[in-house]
# Entry
Amino acid sequence: MNRELRIALDLSHFHYRISERMKEIGNSIDYNKIFSRPEIILFSIDCTEKNPEKQVMEIIKEASSEISYLPFLIDGFVKRTPDKIHGLSLKIEASPGIIQLHDRLKELLIMEGMKFQSFMYDKNRLYLPLMEYPGFLDAEIIWRHVSRKNCDPLTRLLSLAGNSPRYKIRDFILPAESFRIQLCDEKEVLKVYDLVLKRSINGNDVHRAREGFENFRRMRGYESVETKYSETKDSFIISDLHLSHKSITEGAARPFYPGDSKRMDEVLIRNWNNTVKPSDTIYYLGDLTYNLGPDICNNYLSKLNGELVFIRGNHDSCLKDYPEQLLVNYSGREYLLVHDPKFRPKDYSGWMIHGHVHNSRVADYPFIDFKNKTINACCELTGYHPVNLRDIHRVLEKHEKGMTDARRFFLYEEISGEK
# Structure
C-alpha cells in the first residue's frame, strides 16, 4: 500500500504567529474550510516501502549538510494552493538557501529512485495553503478582500450574490526563518531534523530544543557574546522588550523556547549592555514589561546601560512620569518618537520612530518605510539589539540623494549593505 510523506519547513518560532493569522481568517470566513496545520511543503513522496522514514531522514541530513538556517519571506496572499486546487494560500519567497536545499533534495530523491512531487514554483516560490474555495464566486470575493479591493465597485456587486468576509482581512507580510526540517504525513509530524544541531530531535526533548534555539540565536547574531562599543558617544533606539512576558515569545515569533521569558530577559539585557555603553544615549519607545509593578520595572531599568530617554508605552502604567511623545534632533534631522504610530499628529510630515506593532503589521510598518517616513524600532525588527541612529541617518541620506531605490527595508539587517 502506497503512503505519502512530506518534506516541509518546520515553522519553528513562527508557527504560532502563522496559526493565529489562519484562525483570524477562519473567523472572518467561517463557511470555508481552513486548513488546521500550517505547512510549507517542499516535496511529497509516494512511498511503497513499509518504513521509509529512516531513508528519507538520511536524505534530508545529506542535503542540508552545509545549511544552518533557512530564511524566507511571507509575501501576502495568492489565489491558489500548492496542488493547484483553487484556494487561498500565503505566498512564500524562498531564499537561496531554500533553493539550494530543494535542488539537492531533488537530486538525492532521484538517485534513490523515489517517486515524488516538487512544490517549488517559478524557481523561488512556495505556498502555505490556508483554505480551499467552495466555489468560483466565493473565491473571487475572498480574493478581492485579501487583495485590498474590498471597496471596489465590482467587489460590492459580487458580494450581493455571494458571501463576504465579516470583517477586513489584513495583509500579511512577514520576514521569517526556519532552522528545522520536518518529515510528516497527512496526520502528523513524524520526525524533525535540526539544521543547527545537525541531528534529529524528538519533539518532547526540551533540552535539545532549548539548545537548538540558543545556537540559532548566536549564529544569527540575535544573542551577543561580547561588547561592541564605539569610541564616540552614540545614540540608540529600541522598543518593546516586554521583559518577563512569557507569551510574547510565541506571540511575536521570538527565537526562544516557548514561554522561556527568563532566558529571553537575560539575552535582551545582555544584548543592550553589549551594544550601549554607559555614556551613550538610548531612546526607549515603550513597553518595558507587560503591566508589571514599579519595583520590577525600576529593577530592570537599573540593569540597563546608557543615559535612558524613556517614551511611555501602553503597558508602562507603572512608569507614569515619562512622556508619550518627544521630538529629537539628530545630525540636523528631526524625529518624532512615539510608542503607538496611530498617535502621529495629522499635521506632522517628518520622520516618526515608533514601537507597539512588533512584527504583526510589517506590511504597514516595516523597519524603514521611505514613503510614509516611519521607522519601526520594535526589537523583533532590530535583531533584538538597540540600533544606532547614525546607521539610520546614513541610510536616509543615501535615499534622499537617490543613491538607493529601495521603497522599504523590512529588517534592520537589510540596511547593512546600504550604510
